[in-house]
Amino acid sequence: MSLSRRIVARSVRMLGVTAAASALAFSASGTALACEIGDFSATAACDGAKGVITITDKDPSGVPAVITVFLENNGADLRQVGTEQTVEGSKKGVTVSFAEDWEPGAIYRIHVLAVKGKKVLVDADINPGENLTTPAKACAADTATPSGTPSGTPSSTPSDDTAPPVETATALPSPSDSRNDGSAPGAPSASNAPSAAVQESNLAETGAGSNTGLIVGVAAALVVVGGGAVFFGMRRRGSSHR
To answer: pLDDT for 132-153, tens place per residue?
Structure first.
């Protein structure tokens, strides 16, 4: 009976040690997967001519964390940069960026707030006491000269869309055109032909009008009178010679 009790007691002790070891291992693994401020880092760099502040989250548990960036001045917050952003980290790292035209040597405070359920896992600044200091050289614009003709230089080749100027002057007819039109040089145009009234006036003057009969009658009477006068004159002249 005493041997059986020893075996049971020994077995109980072994189970207790195993349970304690398992609890410690579980606790250690849970601690390793928990989000902490050491999982976060920040850098200031240039994106072309613009500055940018990038925060990297390497929390393998992927707990959502709210990132807020502040510009510091003599240890106090001068202003907030943009709006806060939420990041869910990974073992390889997940980044979020804040556009900021930072000046050389400027100091920024980056705050991280990570909450899981009702438990606050992180509520602290990255690099507390030191914060983030930007590089000593500001971001420079790309001053490389583009190839080809500058945009401000006018091209020497005229555009195909430009229409030639319209000639408003009327070209004079050439001598060949005047010969080929079938009319003699200097012939009056149709607009120079005498009107119907002028033609009627000319007809009246030439005796083709309505007074032609009267004129003919008067002329005939004058001829008869003249002939008679000549006849009587000749008779008187002949009688005087006798």
So the answer is: 999 999 998 765 555 554 555 5
CA–CA gap between residue 55 and residue 93 (Å, rounded)? 10
Distance CA 212, CA 205 (A): 10
For the entire predicted model, the pTM comes to 0.48
The tally of CA atoms less than 13 A away on the side-chain side of residue 76 is: 2
